[in-house]
Design goal:
single chain; 351 residues; alpha/beta; Rossmann fold; Dihydrodipicolinate Reductase, domain 2; nine-stranded mixed beta sheet; six-stranded parallel beta sheet; 15 strands; globular
Length: 351
């Protein structure tokens, strides 16, 4: 890969704008070249190209891959596009960063991963929650031993954007038609975070439901996770309810991480608090982050880390082969809710 890799982006919708912003800033720093934008609506590709001084625009992925001389394809388009786009890129030896949800099904994700592995092409999943600065700090503090033995992590997801007939239409209207929504689209973030914090998940118990009748999939539920370590996780989610925050989409909901020596509490404004076991008062912890882009600038942070990893300067996070474990946990969550009982990981798909 070139010292200044050439980046092409597939997609120019709502969330893709955060991708373009991040790549443009890396380009301005001399780290990458933002070479091409592609969207089936060419006017959208041209709009982002004009905003970020992108060299070329396309409405056909094959044409972009053939003529733009790319090192990395960033897929910022919905899941139905993922498998074909990955196949086309890896056939040309182009590294891929692919947005989540990663493909439409576990079978598709496994196929995409096999294709990339067989071609020796890096395939990274754009799982950005673990790059949010408060989550990076929580992980650092867990690893430092501040909490002692980890007992439980609880995430209350409360974005408050799911009520009414127009839910999600202003940003990502395809949310309304996804047959699997809460876990496949958003809960996968919690699955990745929980594994990152506490290690492998061995079993789940889930109760999922749909509250807003205008959408196809589930939008509320509670999921209990068992970890190999003996710790537990709770994902308590409801997209119709909000939480106390100046921006309810910043952290999407409060979190508690509890251990033998104390508790970490993340509030809706991205602030972290620590209380030692036996103490009444808690202390606010200071760490550096920037209120820019999405989720504390996590898209930019992921892109920066991915390019450094592809250059061999740091370990690669979110490699597809590892990310498949998240999707297998997702499958178990849906299987558990349907069966009304706890499922071991792999039990839902027979593996």
């Amino acid at each position: 890969m070139r010292s200044r890799p050439r980046i092409g982006v597939l997609g120019a919708g709502y969330f893709a704008r955060f991708h373009y912003d991040g790549w443009a800033r890396l380009a301005a720093a001399g780290t990458v070249t933002l070479a091409a934008a592609c969207d089936r609506a060419l006017d959208k590709a041209r709009a982002v190209a004009d905003e970020h001084a992108i060299e070329a625009t396309y409405d056909d992925l094959s044409a972009m891959l053939e003529t733009a001389d790319l090192d990395v394809l960033d897929i910022a388009a919905p899941p139905p596009t993922h498998l074909a786009a990955i196949e086309a890129a890896v056939a040309r030896g182009i590294a891929v960063i692919c947005q989540k949800p990663f493909c439409q099904t576990l079978a598709e994700a496994e196929q995409a991963t096999r294709l990339a592995d067989a071609a020796g092409v890096p395939l990274v999943v754009h799982e950005n929650f673990r790059f949010q600065p408060w989550h990076r700090e929580i992980k650092r503090l867990i690893d430092s031993g501040l909490l002692g033995e980890p007992y439980q992590v609880t995430f209350q997801m409360r974005p408050g954007d799911g009520q009414g007939a127009d839910a999600y239409l202003s940003r990502q209207p395809y949310f309304q038609t996804m047959p699997r929504f809460l876990i496949h689209e958003t809960g996968i973030h919690a699955i990745d975070l929980f594994r990152w914090f506490f290690g492998e998940i061995t079993a789940v118990y889930a109760d999922l439901r749909r509250l807003n009748p205008v959408i196809a999939g589930e939008d509320a539920g509670i999921v209990l996770f068992d970890f190999a370590s003996g710790a537990r996780g709770v994902f308590d989610a409801n997209r119709l309810i909000d939480h106390q925050a100046r921006n309810t989409r910043l952290v999407i909901g409060p979190m508690l991480v509890e251990g033998s020596r104390g508790v970490l509490r993340l509030d809706g404004d991205g602030r972290l608090f620590h209380r030692r076991k036996g103490d009444y008062d808690e202390t606010q912890l200071t760490f550096t982050w920037q209120d820019r882009g999405f989720g504390g600038d996590c898209v930019f942070a992921l892109q920066h880390a991915a390019i450094a990893a592809l250059a061999g300067d740091r370990p690669l996070e979110n490699a597809a082969a590892d990310y498949l474990r998240n999707i297998r946990v997702e499958e178990a969550v849906y299987g558990s809710s349907a069966a009304g009982r706890k499922l071991k990981i792999g039990e839902a798909d027979g593996n």
